[in-house]
Every structure is written in structure tokens, then in C-alpha cells.
Design a protein that fits this description.
Elements (H helix, E strand, L loop, with lengths): L15 E7 L5 E8 L11 E4 L7 E4 L3 E4 L5 E2 L2 E2 L6 H13 L3 H4 L9 E3 L1 H14 L7
Parallel strand pairs: 2-8
Antiparallel strand pairs: 1-2, 1-5, 3-4, 6-7
Length: 139
């Protein structure tokens, strides 16, 4: 784990899955990172989403739709599923952009897009942080 005073520079180690959680209106609510050993979030089931570094920032989300964002195409030196065409990739990108709320896309003062971590990944990050952070000494 890379530690830094700048939150933007801290890395989150370990294998993870990432899911996009949608609201009932079809717009994206949040992207959620989880450890690979956690069950995927399910539509209609409440999941705790936490800010990776700010303890008080957390919310329960009951998504209407869940999409996995990490899809491996290459494993152990071999293609493991058909690679989409450029046209398919273009359509997927356009649909993804259309699912964002307009306040995320505006040019002036856009709303930051939320990427959260699961409670289990949050605990893992913070336990690792405490194990590796330097301890000050007073004399």
C-alpha cells in the first residue's frame, strides 16, 4: 500500500471487483469497489457504500440495477471470452455516458462522481494503513 498525505496518491492493494449501481430512474448512483471474495451486490438489496478515506461519509444504497464493470478478456495468456467489436464498445460507452446525471457532465462546477468501497474493503484498507503508517515519537 502506498501511503501519502495526499489522498489522491494512495493506492488500494489487492484484487477487487467493481460494480455500477443504478437508481430507479436509470441514472448511476455510485460505483462500488469490493474485495473479490465478497458477493456481488443485488438489485433491490441494500448495500453499505463508504468513502475510502473519510469515515463519516457513508450511505446505504438499494440499487435498481447492478452492472459489473470489470470483465476479463485475457487470462493465463489466452482470450477467455469474445472480444467486442469497436462498434459494440462505442455503443457501450455512449450508453454509459447517457446514464450519468447531467450535473456530473456539466462543464462548470460538475458534481464529483462517487466511487465507494464496501464495508469489508474499507476495514481491510484501514487495518493495512494502521499496520504500515509510521508512528510518531515524542521526547
Amino acid at each position: 500500500m502506498k501511503l501519502s498525505q495526499d489522498i489522491e496518491k494512495i493506492t488500494l492493494p489487492g484484487k477487487k471487483n467493481v460494480y455500477r449501481l443504478y437508481g430507479h430512474d436509470g441514472h448511476v448512483l455510485v460505483d462500488l469497489m469490493q474485495r473479490v471474495d465478497e458477493p456481488a451486490p443485488e438489485p433491490g438489496k441494500r448495500v453499505l457504500c463508504r468513502h475510502p478515506f473519510e469515515e463519516s461519509k457513508r450511505a446505504y444504497v438499494s440499487p435498481a440495477k447492478v452492472d459489473p464493470l470489470l470483465k476479463p478478456f485475457w487470462e493465463e495468456g489466452k482470450i477467455c471470452q469474445p472480444v467486442p467489436s469497436l462498434q459494440d464498445i462505442r455503443v457501450t460507452a455512449q450508453q454509459s455516458l447517457a446514464s450519468l446525471r447531467s450535473d456530473h457532465k456539466r462543464a462548470l462546477n460538475p458534481t464529483p462522481y462517487k466511487v465507494s468501497v464496501s464495508a469489508k474493503l474499507y476495514r481491510f484498507i484501514h487495518d493495512l494503513w494502521l499496520e504500515n503508517a509510521p508512528i510518531g515519537e515524542l521526547s
